[in-house]
Amino acid sequence: MAPEEMGKVSYRMRLLFAVCSVLFVATLAVSPVKDLLREWKHYKRGYLNLARSRPDTKRLIADFHPDLDQIWIPEMNVVDRCTSCHQGITQATLADASVPQPYRAHPPIPHRVKEWGCTPCHRGQGAATEVAEAHETTLAWEQPILPGRYLEGACGSCHRDARPETPKLNRGRQLLESHNCAGCHHLQDIQRTAMPGPDLTNVGTKVSRAWIYKWLKEPRTVLDDTGSVKVSGYLTQESPRMPQFRLNEKELTNLSAYLSSLRSHPLAPYKFSPAVLAQWSKRPDVVDQGELRFRQMFCSTCHSFAVTRAGETKMIGGEIGPELTKVASKVNPDWLVNWLRNPQAYLPHSKMPRYEWTDEDLYKVTRYIQDKLTDSDLLTSVPQLGAANKDEIDEGKKTFLEKGCSSCHAIEGMPPQKDFGPDLSALGSKNVSQLEFGKSTIPRNLISYIQAKVTDPSSVNQAARMPQYNFNAADLDAITTALLAMTGPPPTSALQKLTVPRPNPQFRPAGEFAQVYERYQCADCHKFNGFGGDLAPDLTYEGSRAQRQWMVSFLKSPQTLRPTLIFRMPQFNMTDREAAILADYLSMVMQSPDVRAGSLNAKDLTPAQAALGKQLYEVKYQCQSCHTIGSGGGYVGPNLNNAGNWLKPEWIAAWLANPQALVPGTIEPQRSMTPEEIKAITAYLMMQRQGGGKSAQKTAAVHAMSRGGNGVAGQ
Amino acid sequence: MKLRTLLLLSAVPVFLLAAGGCRKPAAPAKVDALRNAYDVEADANDATHMIPLSYQQAQGKRIFYADCVWCHADATPAGPSNRSNLTPVPPVLSDGAVLNAVNDDYMKSIITLGGSAMGKSAMMPPWGRTLSPEDVKAVIAYVRAVAQPPYQAPPLAGSPYTREGTASSPSK
Questions:
Q1: Residues A174, A238: Cα–Cα separation, whole Å
Q2: Which of B34, B70, B82 sits opposite A474 (nearest CB)?
Q3: Which CATH number is B141's domain given?
Q4: Average pLDDT over chain A, rounded to an integer
């Protein structure tokens, strides 16, 4: 190379250099351009355009800034950038449906959106800055947004108690509890009950081998083609307690052999008195009489059965006990008599009350059940099984353990299997990659997984031991919601303070009362200190509310107080002593701290006060719109015709001052009454007595006074 | 030549996809009453038409079915309604012909203070001590959602498109 040419660059080299420089600049420019075209910036600009087109532009862009917005709640592990795009989320003027998303305001909720962010309720990826990554499942971001239908599941992650705002979640938790899911799975806040299913120690004395075979093959409650739940062929709302296991012929034969061999306590048939047998066994109307007695004892409060009325057959009755349409084809007649006399002798944990029977009633009712609640065709599809041999029994016992039956059913001498199924206490926060879908073609997300697993476990896992439950669509959604709420322990201790645990109330009375209380299973229907059923009034403050004498006569012969409600309290035929024990305990113990016993004496209330009370009742407060006195009035509240014999005056006064303080959630609205008005109305109500000559005269006097005193009060 | 073939080949599925998308109309959303039992309300005049409810409206529905349904509906969860026992007969909640005519403020007052405070029947009790202001708002939101004929919200007060105050207080 010549010296003068040194330092000179050839044309080709220059061109190469120029091209490289341009390429280099272009490469560098990709980053700012990419940044400019980011999705969230597009939405930022869109918001500005929207705000400019609205009349209140100034307010809408008052706290606008062009960068990413972020809500950070360290104690909840929340980093939310959602408001970068959802700009108008707190702007009240952007609430109507014509505003395009993502700018529309959030509908009103009890939490402040700006303080809590979005992901605590909606889930999804708070830190993501792209639409798909924030809302859906992508490779790197796995938590999708919770569909609106299951939103209550997110409420349940923090609010573990049953709040009225979340009916779906509460229903789901209730279903998980009543279907004994905790028998096999570890669940958040739902404890395993000591005895989830019936004790099978003596089941061989109760049912035949053929019936067990049939029951295991197809439990009574089945889902038909249209998705409706049917029991014994009749439509029902009830979902089954015993799920359907996928058992083959051999397993069915062996299991039925094993179970029918369980007879550790032989059955001693009850001997009816010869006089009753002689009188009733030949009478043609014994079945009809039995049916009448069956109805009078309010068996249908807890049990359902098919009834034909006006050519239409349908299920009526409660869900506390099993369905009875074909019960006589199921149980041994001698067992039935013993059961009715003392259910707890066979099943110590049974909810069935122990009625006080006369031989006559017992005979009539069992004859009715045997003649009418039966189906001779029930067991025709079952093959001839014959007597159980030893091999079958041994094999059956093995199958019983393999299938996890002893998770729910106790047998004397067999330890229960706890945690037979997988732990589900953190199922709601599982990522899709942690789920096994097998060969199924369902969409790959947690919700479809849960629903597939509950409706047909073998669809996602051929070897699943889980049985099949037949839930209707609404209940399936409720259960899914409750399972989505189970997100394990909160991530930080600060959040632990925020979560509200579910109370687990217990009511364990002692002494004589406990015996009567357990005999009649009061807590099946009534609540005591937050523990018990929902079917009947809460008795927590019954001692402050009702007079002892009234309680005794009600227990001896119950009658309805509320015209709109279906009357369900059975007549237990309890003895005077038992009624007295219950009434004494209720009046002494079940007291409200807000009602001072004896603070208001019925004798101190004057007829003049009662006359004023009548006017207040009828004119100023118009209580008759909901309550009945005399023949007129509304159906909403209880009938007050016998209030003077039923209620305590101090209860009426405290109730009128603040009903919700005594019974939370009662629909009686709180009024602003003066103490004088309260006394006057109490006086008027205490005059309302039925079945007493003296008080009737008094009432008449009050009526006369109020008519003379002021013309307005007359009806 | 090769490139063109490739382009053509790749255009075919794109065209097919687009054409398929055009021909196949989106299936109408199936109404499943059971599935939607918790956050929708059946239209009083057309049971197959379900009205979706927001959180607030759903809370209003819950409160309505606890407290109001006994007199403001013809059927109640317990069966018969108390409505026929009352004179004057209270309006059914979804009756838009009556309730659309009153504004939210009036509705709030009559629920909170009771009928007698607003010159109506004292049979409507005051609920202000039983329900919180949020509860009352929720009930009104629910009433508006289920009204038949549908309720039209008045334009917001203070907006330049309406004269000052025309929406809420016409007497001014």
A1: 13
A2: B34
A3: 1.10.760.10
A4: 84
- Domain with B121, as residue range(s), is 56-146
Tokens of A29: 């420019």
Residue of chain A whose alpha carbon sits nearest to that of B162: A55
Is A168 in Cβ contact with B38 (below 8 Å)? Answer: yes
A698 or A363, greater pLDDT? A363
Beta strands in A340-404 (DSSP E): none
B5 falls within a domain? no
Q: Does any domain span residue B37?
A: no
Contact B156 A108 (CB under 8 A): no
- Answer yes or no: same fold for A167-188+420-490 and A511-589: no
B56 with A108: Cβ contact below 8 A? yes
Cβ contacts of A677 on chain B, cutoff 8 Å: none
Task: Out of A93, A621, A672, name the one closest to residue B156 (CB).
Answer: A93
Task: Report the alpha-carbon distance of residue B24 to residue B55 in Å, rounded.
Answer: 34
Query: What kind and span of H or E run contains A312?
Result: strand A312-317
Backbone angles phi, psi at B62, to 5 degrees: -60, -45
Q: Which candidate, A664, A633, A651, places its Cα nearest to that of A563?
A: A633
Domain spans of chain A? 3-34, 39-145, 167-188+420-490, 203-372, 511-589, 602-713
Please give the class, per CATH, of domain A167-188+420-490. mainly beta
How far does B5 lie from chain A, in Å, by closest CA?
Answer: 30
Nearest to B85 among A565, A635, A669 (CB): A635
The model's confidence at residue A239, banded by pLDDT at 50, 70 and 90, is low
User: Under a CB-based contact definition with an 8 Å cutoff, are residues A182 and A195 in contact?
Assistant: no
Domain topology for A602-713: Cytochrome Bc1 Complex; Chain D, domain 2 (1.10.760)
Class of the CATH domain delimited by A203-372: mainly alpha
Note the pTM of the prediction, 2 decimals: 0.79
Of the residues A111, A622, A639, the best mutation for testing chain B's interface (the one with the most B CB atoms within 10 Å of its CB) is A622
> CB contact, 8 Å: B64 with chain A?
no
Q: How many domains does chain B have?
A: 1
The reply to whether B152 touches chain A by the CB within 8 Å rule is no
Least confident segment among A416-420, A593-597, A633-637: A416-420
Q: Which of residues 440-499 of A touch B (CB under 8 A)?
A: 472-474, 477-478
CATH code reported for the domain at A511-589: 1.10.760.10
A64 reaches B (C-beta below 8 A): no
d(CA A227, CA A249): 26
A426: Cβ–Cβ under 8 A, 6 or more apart, which residues?
A188, A486, A487, A488
| Cross-chain residue pair B82–A635, CB shorter than 8 Å | yes
The answer to whether residue B92 is domain-embedded is yes
Of all residues in chain B, what percent are helix, strand and coil, respectively (each to 5)?
45, 5, 50
Q: Report the chain A residue with the minimal C-alpha distance to residue B157.
A: A93
> What ipTM did this prediction achieve?
0.76
CA A367 to chain centre: 36
Q: What is the pLDDT of residues A623-659, one digit of tens each?
A: 988 898 888 788 888 888 889 999 999 999 999 999 9
